[in-house]
Please model this.
Amino acid sequence: MQIQVKNLTHIYSEGMPYESVALTDISFEIAKGEFVGIIGHTGSGKSTLIQHLNGLLKPKSGSILIGGVAITGKDIKMRDIRRQIGLVFQYPEYQLFEETVHKDVAFGPLNLGLSQEEVDERVAEAIGLVGLNYEEIRDRSPFELSGGQKRRVAIAGVIAMKPQLLILDEPTAGLDPKAHADILQMVERIHEVQQNSIILVSHNMGDIARLADKVLVLDRGKLALTGTPAEVFRQADLLESLGLGLPPAAYMMRALRNKGVSVSMDILTIDEAEEELYRILTSRSNGENNIDWKNNT
Model:
């Protein structure tokens, strides 16, 4: 499913004393199956933007085309659009409400009018995709689960509807490092299995660098920068002027370069950094790099 956003502008409390322009002339496209990261300082318009993509908010001006259909049109049936778009807010576990895990995950598919057999299949598949054992938790109350399990169940309820576009707003917020990594591995698995487009809103530059095909950078309601992770994170000075930063691996490479170590400045992920350090150490052992590492650490 292709997403096209053209000249999108949104104003909160228009005409009132507290009128606020939240988005200004935003334009971008998302290709079918693309993984897009959205970054920006708090208040930059990230949440406002994603709420337009499933019609929770209506723009002041501009258009949004979902699979070629203009969802800002007057006669559009948003229920049909929302069947194709799954939106996971921060702390989705607060939205759990059914008495069992199975019933909670089944709520969305049942509202699609699917047969009970297909609903059951989707529930089992979704729970497996988020890394939980269906048989062990299907009849348990979601409120008896751990925090991380609750979040997984909440996300399962969205992906059980098999959206063509999955939007995740800070899905790792408040989680410890292990749970953080587990959730991101889960997102990768969902993307691989369902072959959907994904929008990930995050403050973690390392996550965005590793996962995204394209990055959108918002600043005070405007699209300040867009491109591949390599293209965006090359703009270090601009990003830092916007209150953002670089992935940890990129900062590591900058520190080494400042110490006189000849490393690539295009390194963005920990895996890339590991390969680059291996290359440097191997070349040193072969006499190709005469850096005094002891005095440069």
The chain has two domains: 28-59+77-241, 249-296. The chain has a mean pLDDT of 92. The CA atoms of residues 170 and 202 lie 5 Å apart.
